[in-house]
Amino acid sequence: MNKFYHKHFIPFGLILLLSVFTVFSILIHNKKMGSDTTALERIKRTGIVRLITDNSVNTYYYHNGQPAGFEYELALAFADFLNVELDVVVPGWNNMFTGLEQGKGDFIAAGLAITREGIEKVNFSIPYMTSRQHVIYHKNNPGPGKIEDLASLTIHVNRGTTYHARISELIKSGISLNYILYQNIPMEELIRMVHDKEIKYTIATDPIASLSQRYYPDIRIGIPIREKEPLAWAVSKKDPDMLEQVNKFLLYAGQTGLLKRITDKYFSTSDHSDPFDLKKFHQRIDTRLPEYKQLIYKEAAKYGLDWKLMAAIAYQESQFDPEATSFNNTKGLMQVTKIAAEEMGISNHFNPSENIKAGIQYFDKMLKKFEYLDDDLEKIHFALVSYNVGYGHVSDALKIAEDMGLDPTKWQSLKKTLPLLSKSSYYTRAKHGYTRGLESIQYVERILTYYDILKQKDLN
Prior knowledge:
Elements: H1 2-35, H2 39-46, E1 48-52, E2 61-63, E3 66-68, H3 70-82, E4 85-89, H4 96-101, E5 107-113, H5 116-121, E6 123-124, E7 129-131, E8 133-138, E9 154-158, H6 162-172, E10 178-182, H7 187-195, E11 201-205, H8 206-215, E12 219-224, E13 229-235, H9 240-256, H10 258-267, H11 278-287, H12 289-302, H13 307-318, H14 338-344, H15 352-368, H16 376-389, H17 391-403, H18 411-417, H19 424-427, H20 437-456
Parallel strand pairs: 1-4, 1-5, 9-10, 9-11
Antiparallel strand pairs: 2-3, 5-13, 6-13, 7-13, 8-11, 8-12
Helix pairs in contact: 12-13, 12-15, 13-20, 15-16, 16-17, 16-20, 17-18
């Protein structure tokens, strides 16, 4: 045995050294490769940057088949800045930090306030906006006049949010208010619950509250409950290079006016802030409609449609302004989306003739999807709501109606189920996801009011 070891010691030793060297080389190689697995290097290699966000009116949602939202659009500009594509991950509000830590996304953009608790988990970017928390309540309920009045209220907020943290601070200060916590419910859903009188009070920042008031007009924005807070994006503590790129972009967006343009698009008041001002509608029938009446009449006649209904759609969409652009990025007299424009062969959104042609053709396309309905008025209802929110969301709402035992051929059923798609318990199981269904119901009802007014006027 000893002779064997003496005879083979050198070969065994060489093999052992070679094995150690091989393992060491692999480790060095992996270490080098590891430096290539930072978020920024992976983004450059794959050509994709992954946004972690939440479904909300000010962050990310789909409208007419198109992604929209302030945070989404700013993140899209960041992807362009990096010369890569944008992918979106929506894990639920309470799972965003965990998702970032687990590498499911590269940065969080969701209206995050910079907090002590957050600083322990992530690296925050430089601020791009400030916000202030307000009490949100229904117009029929009393709003608190001062902070101390909160002691008599029950406030509903999401667990682990800055709203939850502020409530804890107020309780520590001696204000014994009541509160109920939720898990992963979009802020907009809590606001909707206030609007629909399911709950009495919640808390939201002023950007979210102001946007939500467009869709939930019965809510009121009450007293602020803390000073202004800076909002920022968040990246993993493991990726300082990513933080540097985010900060470079936000500085660039501020210096070039990009940030202001996107902010103004979503948060500034506009001529469309009161879409149901009937006095203004009567005025614009006389001042604006005559310029486009013949265009609308001619195109509607091609499809056997009532031109006055088409005119009512145009007013609801743009108030007869051919240069109108919504914060959902629909454009022109009929607010044609990018997808509809491509389908209908539109090359210039702001050309009244082309826009009217595409809008009416698209409405006719939606109308044909409901030819199986016997009632002509029901067909119009269904086509109008599809024109606004997209046929996919309407299909989801009709499926919910069937599941609930409601008649899917009736507008009254759709009025009940389409708004449910703003609730996480419904939209997470729907094929086409989240949408603000209540807004679309109001959209249809406004158009039919305008249509009724036009029918009564002598405009032939």
